[in-house]
Predict the 3D structure of the following.
Amino acid sequence: MADRSSEVRPSKEVVDRVRELRALVEYHDERYFVFDEPEVADAEFDALVRELRELEARHPSLVTADSPTQRPGGRPASTFAPVVHRMPMLSLDNAFSRDELLAWGTRIQRLITEPICFVAEPKLDGLAISLQYEDGRFTVGATRGDGVTGEDVTENLRTIKAVPQKLKGKAKDLPALLEVRGEIFMPLAAFEALNRRQGEAGERLFTNARNAAAGSLRQKDPSVTATRDLALYTYQLGAKEGGPRLRTHQETLAWLTALGFPVNPHIAPFDDLDAVFAFCEQTETNRHSLGYDIDGVVVKVDDLGQRAEMGTTSRAPRWAIAYKFPPEEKSTLLRDIMVSIGRTGRATPFAVLEPVFVGGANVGMATLHNEDDVARKDVRPGDTVIVRRAGDVIPEVVGPVLAKRPPKTKPWKFPKKCPECGQPLVRVEGEANHHCVNVDCPAQRVQRLVHWAGRGAMDIEGLGEERVRQFVEAGLLEDAADVYALTVDRLVPLERIGERSAQLLVDAIEASKRQPLWRVLVGHGINHVGPTAAQALARAFADLDAIMGASEEQLTAVDGVGPTIAQSIARWFSIDRNQRLVQRLHAAGVNLEGDRGPQREAVDASFAGLTFVLTGSLQHRTRDETADEIGARGGKVTSSVSKKTSYVVVGESPGSKFAKAEELGVTILDEQGFESLLESGQPTLNDQV
Ligand code: JCF
């Protein structure tokens, strides 16, 4: 860091910017801590603080005692009685990359001769609190506030089950005084349930679980807090008088657990920062299977003696750092709200955004679900909105930043006409969605064909949305049967299609004629008919003609087909144009034989009676292929794990089904174990599972 004598004199721009940044940080701190209504996403706030800190580091003469960088941040609101913390509740310095994490390691290793061991934990996106116990009894609970003074929320904390009212252990072993620090947070299931209730009651929705937790903890009436399903993990001691002598963080956490405090089970020790970084990456990959929001990993020095040697700055301990994940929320301009038409004619509004980099990707569009979703969020073109992109979840507009709304905007209105064909968009009473009523709408036609050729249906490589659109516009395609009339000669004259890619496409189309019947059924896009029902039908009937001729009663007799599916199928096949489509597919040579038909290989029943649940992605097969392999051997794939499940097949990034399987003691197979089950009928069980 530059010292004052070597400092270059800051320019007027720098001085102004520092002043501006301070005002911005103070302002947003207040929106966040005092009003619980942040106007900017956390990451943007972090960026402001970071820029300020960097400018101050380069120009130490500009640092003032009251700069927000010199305080832990935030100010307590006035509704609750102030509590002065016995020891300040410091915040954490951030690292935004592997380099910054390693640089921290180098910095602290210079202060210590012995090698350093670390403990890392998911960084909860909740509210830091302090809990005070006197002779084993909970006496005072406070929010962090500005780190020096917090708010007394004791009565609210008493309503939270995870907060021990009394410490466990013999009275003589308990400390006379103990201050425990941790994070109050709202699990995502509780957050979603709360917002559902709020919506039903016509109350305002919370933008995220953190705000919901803050709003719930800072209620005037503790009986409201009691209904909010708040959770707690503890991770740090404050003041302590009496009790055991603790030498490491791991001992501290074990003691906290023994006293009855919840401690995050994902906390783990590491010998070096490379291993810590691997943990950070792994935690980031799995962040969406935790059931609560996290925004990084907290890394701490394990040895308490080493910590004392390193000490703290006025703002944060030197012995800990927060490794922050890239943001999943950012604000941006909502340029427009448009409507897209799906294969069934459903009209879905979506946001056209000023592109932002969020959740690891550039986002220029985000779904708005339906008319009610837009009305509930009240987002309007011209608004600054908060956009969220969590992992592989479709980007979503969380809500508007009202403080930045330009004057004279009006609530958005759903268009009356289909943007693609001009026919009316109709919303049937009692339904959430509008539909374009025109089956010949070109947009619907394109989407139906895209679905037919898609991965989950006929799986025709090279026939994606762009090509389909091009072929429809060129008049080559109207429906699925036309696909089989495409030839190299007809394709080559089109733009952007060479001889070779035309040949590849025609080959892929030809190969798709041999797809099993269930894929044809799925390809038709009949309401309620997914792969499971389609597979059951393909097993039960000789061919598509038999399905077409079956009564609703005969359809319902099939395992896994209920009245809703049966009615939907019967209705679909009763329509003339659909019957003609089936005839044309037959004439084109598309396989319409059921699994019992002549085209299927001899039936293997080695998995008869076995049920499988799939979670995570396998390296060598798609989900559909895996299900095909199981189905071909007479096994069943179901979606939820129960005691009756025979095997859970676990791939990369498994979801909650993995934990459920462990809990119920269901046999877990990794990819290799599954492959050997396919080959030999015998699973190889992995030692780890
Ligand atoms: O999960 C957290 N948000 C979190 C915050 C975890 C910790 O172990 C922390 C913290 C803030 C300060 N530890 C300190 C010392």
DSSP finds 25 helices and 22 strands in the chain.
